[in-house]
Amino acid sequence: MKRKMPFSLSKEKSFYESLNDWIGDTLYDDLTEKGFECRDEQIYMAFQIEQALKEKKVLLAEAGVGTGKTIAYLLPAIAYARYTGKPALISCADETLIDQLVKEEGDIRKISDALQIDIDVRLAKARDQYLCLKRLDETVDGTTEEFAENVQSSLPDFVRGNLSMQSISPYGERSDYPDINDDQWKTINFHPIQQCAACDIRNRCGQTIHRNHYREAADVIICSHDFYMEHIWTKDSRKRQGQLPLLPDVSMIVFDEGHLLEYSAQRALTYEVQNNTLLNLLERIMVDGVREETLRLMEQLIDLHEHFFLLLRANSIGNTTERKAIKKIDELLSVGREAIAVSTALLEEFVFEGELYIIPEYDLTMVEEYLEQYIFSMELFTSENDAVDWVEEAEGEMTLIIMPRLVTDILKEKLFSSNLPIVFSSATLSVGQDFTYLLDSLGIDDFLSFSVESPFDYEEVMDVFVADLEEGEKADYVLDLLQEKQQTLMLFKSEQSMKEFKEKLGEGHKEIAFEGERELSSMIRDFQQKEISVLCSYHLWEGLDVPNDALTRVIIYDLPFPPQDPLFDARRKHAENPFKEVDLPFMLLRLRQGAGRLIRTSDDYGTIHIPLEGQDREMKNEISGIFPVEIQSPINK
Predict the structure, then answer these.
(1) What are the Cα distances from residue 487, in Å, to 77, 498, 598?
(2) Whether residue 507 has pLDDT greater than 70
(3) How far apart are CA 627 and CA 108, in angstroms?
(4) How buried is residue 565: exposed, middle or buried, by Cβ count under 10 Å (0-12/13-18/19+)?
(5) How far is Cα 410 from Cα 216, in angstroms, rounded to an integer?
(6) Cα–Cα distance between 210 and 214 in angstroms, integer?
(7) How many CB atoms lie within 10 A of CB 85?
(8) Nearest Cα to 377, choosing from 400, 393, 396?
(9) pLDDT per residue over 586-634, tens digit each?
(10) What positions does the domain Helicase ATP-binding occupy (predicted)?
(11) Most buried pick, 207, 357, 410, 510, via CB within 10 A?
């Protein structure tokens, strides 16, 4: 439903002229009277976005920390949504940052209160951020742990009872269960093999209710880059199947931390084949009464699949990274092709099984959908193509992953060829105000751009210490730093690096929290309220906004170089100078983002510590170039 404009429209002025006047009046006068800082950089950014709306173009808006980017894009976004009658979409780097945008003390709440505007903001989270009732039931039946029963007992009455569906309300998102750790959540959340369209309780499902809720948004929908990319890739196929797209039509898009969009686009096109999933699904439908030919093909496929994964494990090129390269020997490819042939024959037999109604309809539909995806994935793996593939293994579960190397053509066709105004907002979109790295990776040709510096006087409020350490000294150096109690964010380049530090730390450090121990946004909330003094994370390089004395020290435990894995190796192979074109720009952009967590307002202050050992010590000069202050050596205690 179209909502009232925040300013008056007249025949004498176009909408864009009226929007320009309103932005100026609001930022120069209305908000400053309410205690907001008047920042020239913020006002400039807002006017540039207004121009992008008028020209319906892509805008690369690089604005330093403290510019007030969120308010700069929110004002024109809300007005444009009401003018067009379609909500604006804000896409964040990940799911955690969605909650950051709508927190009580966040910018949306602040301008809503200051301008007395009722802003209709709704969240659209990725599907794995929602509870699955069927998986919850299976986990309750299959585990002795109490967490699943506790979740089940906390469900609203309408989910299991006979209450009228008129009393329904959104429920079941990840943030509703802050005390459950990530591993527990993965046993009860939505999994891609679930077939929501065939589920008999989908109308009472929290994910379905959330979907219906945000589709009615009037002003703003907030989602993650990953979810928006999933929407883009699945939009046409969902329409063909008679389903609604994951997101409704929108008036404009803001990609907050837009430099990360390429990786989300690649992840959305990822295909996965797990060693246990196929076996578990086929066992579900091996019920009494299934035809002999169908059973024979299922048993044959199970044997081929297990043989394939034995070969895959034997030919995975091992290293300490999460992703392992694959040596594609002839036998591996041959077994993969056999599995494709048997899967295709099995799908044909399922047509007859469906007519007999021996196998439960939901289970059969789930297996059919999975087999179609399995065949497509295995065909990609066994054929000559430009895809990148690797193996990941966690807690005994082995996964084959296939990903396209480049997504530029698809992005051009499905996103950048429209007349939709698109704003990329970040403090780090360029390398030395050169946007080539981002433009080439996304396939953007026609665009507007600007770059403005941060308004903060960093010399007065921030010190950067770079320690030159011998190999093996880093953990002890950081532990020594932590003896001085401060509100500290520790950033790691990977989950593995964080876990190695946690092992060295040992037991008995209740004041230190590690990502993954429980739901991340609840940990951030506790950190901001100083119930936690040290927050360790491998995800929070971007977007975290913890102002004032709730964060006074950032420790960059590792230089955030991209991993030596098949995905980045593919990018390196297509570069003339892999280190300068891939590794170094990635590291410097991410390092700038991590350091930017410290100073968020004009009242902030603190220190950044970067311990360097081994080859990283050679990066000292490169690191010094990204900071607005001179780096220092730590003072020996």
Answers:
(1) 34, 18, 11
(2) yes
(3) 30
(4) middle
(5) 28
(6) 6
(7) 12
(8) 400
(9) 898 889 889 989 988 888 999 999 999 988 989 998 998 888 889 998 8
(10) 28-305
(11) 207
CA-to-CA dists, residue 259 to 79, 220, 229, 265, angstroms: 25, 21, 14, 12
- Residue 636: per-residue pLDDT: 56
Distance CA 213, CA 172 (A): 13
Q: Which residues, in sequence order, are bridge partners of residue 467?
A: 611
pTM beyond 0.70, yes or no: yes
Are the C-beta atoms of residues 201 and 133 closer than 8 Å to each other? yes
| Distance (Å, whole) CA 431 – CA 437 | 8
Q: Chain-centre distance of CA 48, in angstroms?
A: 27
CA distance 201 to 445: 46
Q: Report the 3 state secondary structure along 22-47.
A: HHHHHHHHHHHHCCCCCCHHHHHHHH
**In DSSP terms, which residues pair with 131 in a beta bridge?**
189
Higher-confidence residue: 268 or 57?
57
From 211, 118, 200, select the one nearest 168 (Cα to Cα).
Answer: 211
Tokens matching residue 631: 């780096």
Q: Give a three-class secondary structure readout of 216-283.
A: CCCCEEEEEHHHHHHHHHHHHHHHHCCCCCCCCCCCCEEEECHHHHHHHHHHHCCEEEECCHHHHHHH
Phi and psi dihedrals of 529, rounded to 5?
Answer: -90, 5
Residue 530: Cβ within 10 Å count = 11
Instruction: Give residue-wise pLDDT tens across range 548-590.
Output: 899 999 999 999 998 877 778 877 887 889 898 888 988 988 8
Residue 427 CA to residue 635 CA, distance in Å, equals 30
Separation between Cα atoms, residue 337 and residue 493, nearest integer Å = 37
Structure tokens at 482: 């932590």
pLDDT tens digit sequence for 7-30: 999 999 999 999 999 999 999 999
Model pLDDT for residues 300-314, shown as the tens digit of each residue: 999 999 999 999 999
CB 433 within 8 A of CB 451: yes
On whether the CB atoms of residues 297 and 462 are closer than 8 A, the answer is: no
Output the average pLDDT for the chain. Answer: 88
Query: In the predicted model, is pLDDT for residue 406 greater than 70?
Result: no
Tell me how far CA of residue 613 lies from CA of 126, 425, 467, 468, in angstroms.
Answer: 38, 33, 8, 6
Between CA 232 and CA 604 the distance in angstroms is 39
- What do you get for the CA distance between the two ends of the chain, in Å? 64
Percent of the chain at pLDDT exceeding 70: 96
Distance CA 503, CA 33 (A): 51
Q: Which residue has the tokens 């993954």?
A: 516
Nearest-angstrom CA–CA distance, 125 and 119: 19
Q: Residues in the chain, how many?
A: 637
What the block records as the tokens of 349 is: 């037999």
Strands 58-63 and 512-514, bridge-based pairing: unpaired
